[in-house]
Amino acid sequence: MANPLDDLLVGLSVLREQVRQSVGGEVDWLERLDPRRQPADSRSLADLRTELDSLVGLESVKEQVRALVAFLQVQGRRLEHGLPEVATSQHLVFVGNPGTGKTTIARLLAHMYRSMGLLRRGHLVEVDRAGLVGEYVGMTAIKTERAIRKALDGVLFIDEAYALARPGQRGVDFGQEAIETLLKRMEDHRHRLVVIVAGYPRLMNEFLDSNPGLRSRFARELTFPDYSTEELVAITELFARENEYRVTGSGAEELRGIFARAERGEGFGNARYARTIFEQALNAQALRLAGASETALGNLGVDELTGLNEADFAASARTLGESSGDPLPRRRLWWRAS
What is the reported pTM? Predict the structure, then answer.
């Protein structure tokens, strides 16, 4: 049977586009009718700082975020006293390998900007090249404008932004059109939009040099280091706790060996690799427990059902090809996150 909610969502989407085309502008009141729209975050700046401090690792990044927030607070107080504001761009560059917390920090910053009154909504819209660049003439400007409209009063997070600029590309490529549209709207909406571009360090430097006005639009560059072995163990243990599992002592030792042997570099998945190791360990644990007799399986207690040991993680690493450190695509599992 057809889902009435699906029909409603399709109808609203068509109505929004028709009104946009007829009035030639934004229709925020229609966006607010979208049942999928997430409620605004209402946490205080103190709560958000606590969440920032609770993140595993990223000490240098946390310090830079604290410095940025302190600077914005002081500038706000100066304005209240009639003192001139030091006008700086709020757009940022995040450089680092995959799984180093770039999206998490971007989302926290969006909420912090909202809590300080710099952005009205403080939501995060995440896109990549496919979300900005069209395949035909005229489509790129439309797609880029649509992403920007969706991110107004919040943060537009462009992952793998370097893909927009392809030096030496043969044939027609509309990535530069997306960059030029983005640059103009960053200036037009400088009080309503923060843009964060993210990607590998080397490729992001090439990206920022690909357009004369690009690097000057971004005030700060935050470098996200790879997680250490101990931090990856802590992250895996966090995944376990969130899903009511626990890593045994022997399991933690096995994890240390796995992460220590993983090849580091641009292809290393960091927290994504840790998550995949954890998910594969769940499968290994299930196979181990299911191998018991029916009587023994029926007598399993909480400790057995929640414990992930060295055998589970060793099997997980073998499944992934331990030395690569490159996680498989994440799959939806049958268990629910708590």
Answer: 0.78
